[in-house]
Amino acid sequence: DVKVTQSSRYLVKRTGEKVFLECVQDMDHENMFWYRQDPGLGLRLIYFSYDVKMKEKGDIPEGYSVSREKKERFSLILESASTNQTSMYLCASSLRAREQYFGPGTRLTVT
Amino acid sequence: KQEVTQIPAALSVPEGENLVLNCSFTDSAIYNLQWFRQDPGKGLTSLLLIQSSQREQTSGRLNASLDKSSGRSTLYIAASQPGDSATYLCAVKETSGSRLTFGEGTQLTVNP
């Protein structure tokens, strides 16, 4: 079974803090993705990576950066957290163009 | 730009009923379509993946169909159970990349 894990289920941070969200997959997938999910807006793609050290912007990359130093790990970084980044963050991975598998999500609250 | 719409936004049915969830997309040049289930506060669980060359996929009580030319997919759930209560999302992958475009989901409640 594919397993995608995220470092925290719930996270509370203060405005201006640097925040790291970690995602790890155990199936040697090339592609990894970060989404955020908000009521009324659905799932929106922030960044994705199709190989180690490779990244591409999604639909809403502003205020975020990513890092993929190893194939199994994809990190989302909020350089200076703001209240409008309070959201559910979901990581996913896929083998080439096949189905995406999601992690359990991280509920981030920025106060 | 691809847009995915799911109707209805919410559905409440009695246990045992057969039901259909609808998904439509604006650009028929898709690579595949995926149906997911999401329980409150949780991540997404993949239910079915239909490749663009396929017409349907089945898994247990679930059957998903795809009509690419008309930009539609349906998820059929047979003999619904309270445990089927969740939000169901469809997502399309376009031929030009790896990204998925999601609908906003149908929130299903199956009443005992």
Which short descriptors sum up this protein?
heterodimer; A: 111 residues; mainly beta; seven-stranded mixed sheet; four-stranded antiparallel sheet; 11 strands; 0% helix; 54% strand; globular; B: 112 residues; six-stranded mixed sheet; five-stranded antiparallel sheet
Structural overview:
The complex is a heterodimer of chains A (111) and B (112). By secondary structure, chain A is mainly β. Chain A is built from no helices and 11 strands. In chain A, 35% of the residues are buried. The mean pLDDT of chain A is 94. Chain B starts with a strand and ends with a strand. Chain B has strands at residues 4-7, 10-14, 19-25, 30-38, 44-51, 56-59, 62-67, 72-77, 86-94, 100-102, 106-111. By secondary structure, chain B is an all-beta fold. In chain B, β7 (62-67) and β8 form a beta hairpin. Chain B has no helices and 11 strands. In chain B, 0% of the residues lie in helices and 60% in strands. The interface between A and B is medium-sized, with 25 and 21 residues.
Question: In terms of topology, how is this protein built?
Answer:
The complex is a heterodimer of chains A (111) and B (112).
Chain A: E1 4-6, E2 10-13, E3 19-25, E4 31-38, E5 42-49, E6 56-57, E7 64-70, E8 73-78, E9 87-94, E10 101-102, E11 106-110
Parallel strand pairs in A: 2-11
Antiparallel strand pairs in A: 1-3, 3-8, 4-5, 4-9, 5-6, 7-8, 9-10, 9-11
Chain B: E1 4-7, E2 10-14, E3 19-25, E4 30-38, E5 44-51, E6 56-59, E7 62-67, E8 72-77, E9 86-94, E10 100-102, E11 106-111
Parallel strand pairs in B: 2-11
Antiparallel strand pairs in B: 1-3, 3-8, 4-5, 4-9, 6-7, 7-8, 9-10, 9-11
Rg estimate of chain A, integer Å: 13 Å
What oligomeric assembly is this protein in?
A: heterodimer
> Would you list the SSEs of chain B in sequence order as H and E?
EEEEEEEEEEE
- Compute the average pLDDT of chain A: 94
Q: Which spans of chain B have pLDDT < 50 for at least 5 consecutive residues?
A: none
Note the overall shape of chain A.
globular
Going by helix content, strand content and strand pairing, the class of chain A is: mainly beta
Helix percent of chain A reads under 10%
Give the helix tally of chain B: 0
Q: What's the helical proportion of residues of chain B? A: under 10%
User: Termini separation of chain B (Å)?
Assistant: 41 Å
The tally of strands of chain B reads 11
What structural category characterises the helix and strand content of chain B? Answer: mainly beta
Strand content of chain A: over 45%
Q: Determine Rg of chain B (CA atoms, Å).
A: 13 Å
Distance between the termini of chain A: 37 Å
